[in-house]
Every structure is written in structure tokens, then in C-alpha cells.
């Protein structure tokens, strides 16, 4: 078995105080999650609804699950009853569906708006202008079962650390802009979810409050 406990503790020791660790367990077996759980890790991230639902059934109930992948609207109803945070909200349509299903479940679901800043054409997320538009439109203000807690993004998958740092800085500046404009008095809007295995050291130097780390903790994924 991969040395999950050791790796988890190494990652923890390398994180500044106040940065939350989301252990990304997608494609990894439940025994790996249990190993991390035994070390006190409680926040885990998954990106596929069926895999997540399967794991939720057999793992401890005090785990906080974050949905980190692209979420299809027809899958929201399955996770709304228990999900702790939906990190990758990339459309008003998805936000509306989360509001609807969270209301049915009698819950408030915490979400992050996903930004598209990376160069890759394939990545999901709202452009900065689309995000401005969504917030300016204001429909979200009427949503009583959704709490917008901040922003999430992925940097370009490149070796150029200066480029990665610049993308994180763009996201951090944008966070300040919308915080001031829409959430100045809302303490819940505080999260900047950026940084993965290969770039979290750069992310925490550029405003990240929440890193999403899989490979460094659990080893390579077997698809
Ligand atoms: C898989 C994934 C991660 C974790 O990536 P690693 O390189 O394994 O750390 C983080 N964020 C998102 C959105 C992911 O899909």
C-alpha cells in the first residue's frame, strides 16, 4: 500500500497555518481514505457522483465531502442531501439546480464559483466577465439554500512557475474585486481554492486558503 499517512503528514507540515487541505481521493480505494481519516483528515474531494455516493455509504459519517469536478445538473439531486461543498459551480443553471435540490433536502449547500483563467481551452469554469455577469445579475441573492463561499480555479498545466503564479495572482485580485463589490459584509465569502499537487507551493504564496491535493498524498491514480 502507498504510504498515505506519511505523505499526508508531509503535506500538512508544508502548509502554512490557516490553509485548509482537501484530500483528493478520486479513483483511490476506500482503504486509502481510511488511512488518511485515521490521521485526522476529515475533508475529502471527489469528482464523480457515482464513485462518491459509493464511498459515502461505507465511510464514516463525519467526513466532509467536497465535489470538485464538473457537475452535471441531473446529478445534483443525488449529492445535495449530504455534500459539504460544491467547488466547481460554472453556470447560473447549475447554481439554480443546487438551490432547488438543497431546498428539497432542507439544507444550505456551500459552493465556490469556478473561474476559467488557465490557457487550456478544455478547462471548465466561468471567465472573469461571465462571473461578473452572474454576480451582477443578482439572482443568487434570492437563493436561500446556497451559500457562495468563494472562488476556485485551476492554473494551466505548465512547467513555467511564473505563469502559474501569475494566474493565481489574477484569481486573487479578482477575489478582492468581488469580495469588495458583493460580499464585503459576508464573512462566509472567504475561500480561495487553488493549488494541486504540482503547484500548491506556488498557490499558498498567492492567496490560496484551500488546496486540493491528490497525487502527493495518495500516489498516482489508476484509471
Ligand atoms: C484531480 C483534481 C485535483 C488533484 O490533483 P492532483 O494533481 O492529484 O493533486 C485537484 N483539483 C481538481 C479540480 C481535480 O480534478
Biggest sheet architecture: 8 strands, parallel
Helix content: 25-40%
Structural class: alpha/beta
The CATH architecture name reads Alpha-Beta Barrel
Distance between the termini: 17 Å
Strand % is: 15-25%
How many distinct helices? 9
The level 1 CATH classification is Alpha Beta
CATH homologous superfamily? Answer: Alanine racemase
The Rg value, from CA coordinates, equals 17 Å
Tell me the domain tally. 1
Encode the helix/strand succession as letters: HEHEHEHEHEHEHEHEH
Shape: globular
Briefly note the CATH topology name.
TIM Barrel
* Strand element count: 8
**Unreliable stretches:** none
Look at the structure and give the mean pLDDT. 97
Short précis:
This protein has 9 helices and 8 strands.
Model description:
With 223 residues, the chain is of the alpha/beta class. It has a single domain (4-218), classed as Alanine racemase (TIM Barrel, Alpha-Beta Barrel), CATH 3.20.20.10. The protein contains nine helices and eight strands. The chain has helices at 4-14, 30-38, 49-58, 76-79, 92-105, 128-137, 161-182, 200-204, 215-218; strands at 20-24, 43-46, 64-67, 85-89, 109-115, 146-153, 191-193, 210-213. The chain has an eight-stranded parallel sheet. Helix 2 links the parallel strand 1 and strand 2. It is globular and about 50 Å long. The two termini are 17 Å apart. The model has no long low-confidence stretch (mean pLDDT 97).
Keywords:
single chain, 223 residues, alpha/beta, TIM Barrel, eight-stranded parallel β-sheet, 8 strands, 40% helix, 18% strand, binds pyridoxal-5'-phosphate
Amino acid at each position: 500500500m502507498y504510504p498515505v499517512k506519511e505523505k499526508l503528514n508531509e503535506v500538512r507540515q508544508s502548509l502554512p497555518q490557516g490553509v485548509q487541505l482537501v484530500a483528493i481521493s478520486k479513483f483511490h480505494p476506500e482503504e486509502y481514505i481510511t488511512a488518511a481519516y485515521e490521521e485526522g483528515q476529515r475533508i475529502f474531494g471527489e469528482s464523480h457522483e457515482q464513485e462518491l455516493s459509493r464511498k459515502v455509504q461505507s465511510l464514516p459519517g463525519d467526513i466532509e465531502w467536497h465535489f470538485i469536478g464538473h457537475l452535471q445538473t441531473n446529478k445534483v439531486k443525488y449529492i445535495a442531501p449530504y455534500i459539504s461543498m460544491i467547488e466547481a459551480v460554472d453556470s447560473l443553471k447549475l447554481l439554480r439546480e443546487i438551490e432547488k435540490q438543497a431546498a428539497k433536502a432542507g439544507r444550505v449547500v456551500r459552493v465556490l464559483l469556478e473561474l476559467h483563467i488557465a490557457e487550456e481551452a478544455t478547462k471548465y469554469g466561468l471567465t472573469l466577465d461571465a462571473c461578473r455577469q452572474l454576480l451582477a445579475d443578482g439572482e443568487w441573492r434570492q437563493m436561500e439554500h446556497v451559500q457562495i463561499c468563494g472562488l476556485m480555479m485551476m492554473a494551466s498545466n505548465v512547467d513555467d512557475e511564473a505563469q502559474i503564479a501569475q494566474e493565481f495572482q489574477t484569481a486573487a485580485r479578482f477575489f478582492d474585486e468581488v469580495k469588495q463589490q458583493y460580499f464585503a459584509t459576508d464573512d462566509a465569502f472567504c475561500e480561495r481554492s487553488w493549488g494541486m499537487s504540482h503547484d500548491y507551493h506556488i498557490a499558498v504564496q498567492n492567496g490560496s486558503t484551500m488546496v486540493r491535493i491528490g497525487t502527493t498524498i495518495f500516489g498516482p491514480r489508476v484509471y
